[in-house]
Design brief:
Layout lengths: L3 E4 L2 E4 L3 E2 L15 H13 L4 E3 L8 H10 L6 E6 L15 H15 L4 E6 L8 H13 L3 E7 L3 H10 L4 E5 L8 H10 L2 E5 L12 H9 L4 H12 L12 H9 L7 H8 L3
Parallel strand pairs: 3-4, 4-5, 5-6, 6-7, 7-8, 8-9
Antiparallel strand pairs: 1-2
Helix pairs in contact: 1-2, 1-9, 3-4, 4-5, 7-8
């Protein structure tokens, strides 16, 4: 298994960390245990994570602030953030794709993260009230001014990705994807064929009761691992273009997730899991 991939001009390890859940309940406000959140970020880097995904909407602003507190200066770490969603309360995520909002969001992320340039800035979600190309043009404008190095997309379909690639270089796509949620399989295949990193969010999610599946339990037992670890290992071995970003606010949970990168599934096990989707 290939353990690294390229995002733009930088090589990163294929187990990243999603910094959404270091915030409060509903991804709203500060974490219940600030010191644990800081410890999680530091431990992730100790375990080899050099790709951390966040957003101005996580908290909002809380996740970016914690990342700066725990990890700045970011030696050999790619901090990827996103713009295009706003928050009105716990669990509420109204999109805002207006160019003026994207510019303001980018400036805010630069300040909170302590950066002069965001290495990977991702369009968080298309806004149905604003033309997709109008919002995306702002991301490429920020790239031309040097505030953003590389542009990525999140929560898009294949048609939108192809439209975006006609406007400029797209180095990553971040969509919901897991062993039991493969609606973006066409996007993953396209990314693999075109050298684009595919970042599955909610990488252990799926249909209700999925992780009690008998086959998954059998494979996990065979490897003396958890079903969650098998699900992450499958993501890593299903395609060389995937960069899972399982997130957590617990050091113990983080260590369990990271151990999944060392789990080598047999070819027949991968085939059996492929057929579950």
């Amino acid at each position: 298994m290939i353990n690294t991939l390229k995002i733009g001009d930088k090589t990163v390890n294929r187990m990243g960390f999603g910094a959404m859940r270091i915030t409060g309940d509903g991804i709203w406000g500060p974490p219940d245990d600030h010191d644990e959140a800081i410890a999680v970020l530091k431990r992730a880097v100790e375990l080899g994570v050099n790709f951390i995904d966040t957003s101005d909407a996580y908290g909002p602003e809380v996740s970016e602030n914690l990342i700066h507190e725990a990890l700045y200066p970011y030696k050999d770490i790619l901090i990827a953030t996103k713009g295009g969603l706003t928050r009105t309360g716990p669990g509420m995520w109204p999109p805002d794709g207006r160019p003026e909002h994207i510019r303001e969001a980018c400036e805010g992320s630069l300040k909170r993260l302590g950066l002069e340039q965001i290495e990977l800035y991702q369009f968080h979600r298309p806004d149905p009230k604003v033309p997709f190309t109008e919002t995306l043009a702002t991301f490429f404008e920020l790239q031309k001014t040097g505030k953003v190095k590389h542009v990525g997309l999140s929560n898009v379909n294949l048609e939108q990705l192809m439209i975006a690639r006609e406007m400029g270089e797209i180095v990553s796509v971040q969509n919901r994807y897991s062993l039991f949620d493969r609606a973006s399989e066409d996007l993953l295949e396209y990314c693999e064929q075109n050298g684009i990193a595919f970042i599955p969010w909610y990488p252990i999610g799926g249909r209700q009761g999925s992780y009690g599946d008998k086959l998954l339990q059998t494979i996990a037992s065979r490897h003396n691992s958890s079903t969650r670890q098998v699900a992450i290992a499958w993501l890593l071995q299903h395609s060389p273009s995937t960069l899972p970003i399982p997130g957590t606010g617990s050091v113990e949970h983080l260590e369990e997730n990271m151990a999944a990168a060392k789990l080598e599934l047999a070819p027949e096990e991968i085939e059996q899991l492929n057929n579950l989707g």
